[in-house]
Design brief:
With 194 residues, this protein is of the alpha/beta class. Helix content is 40%, strand content 20%. It is built from five helices and five strands.
Length: 194
Amino acid sequence: MSHGGMVIGLGGSGVRVTLRVRQVLASSGEARIPDSIRLLAFDIRKPLPATGRLPQSYSFQVLLPPPDEAAPGQTPRQAARGVLLDDLAQGAASSLTLRGLAAQLDGLRRARVDDADVFLVCSSFGDTGTAWLLDMAYLVRHLTQKRIQTRIHVVALAPEGYERAFFPTQAQRMTSFALLRELEALQRERSWDK
C-alpha cells in the first residue's frame, strides 16, 4: 500500500499556504516534488505578488471567474459559493474544479497511491475559502470513494493568527464561528446520495 497526500488551498490564504508548501518541498534537496504529493488551489482572484527567494509559480492554481455583482442582500461569501456551484453545474467535461481535482487524483493513482491524506486549507474568516470548504470536502470524499482511501483534514487559519497584521472585525469572527459549525456537520457520517 502506497501512501500519498494532497494539499488543496481555497481562497487567497489557501493559495498562499499551498505556494509555501511547494517552496518548502522544492527546496528540500529532492530533484522534484514526489509524484505521491499533489498540490492544487482554487480562487477567484490572481495571487498578489509576494517576496521570496524561490520563483513563484502558481501552476497548481485553478482560477474560477469572479462573481458578477452580488444579488441584493447576498453576502460576498454567498456570491463566492455561487461561483463554485455554477462551475460544478457545467459537468465533468467543462468544470474547472472537477477537471483540476480529476487531474490531481489521476496523478495520485499513476503514482500507485491507494491511501492519502487530503489537507483543505483556507482562512476561517474569509469569503471564498470558507464558502468553498464544505462543498470541496464532500466533493473530494465523493471523487475518491472506492478509488483511494482518504482522510480529509481541514487547516483553517483563525483570525487570531492575523492580529499582528490587522484587527479582525466582528463579521470576520462570525464567519469563523459559522465555519466551525459547518465543520462539525462535516464530521457526521453521510452518504453522498443524501
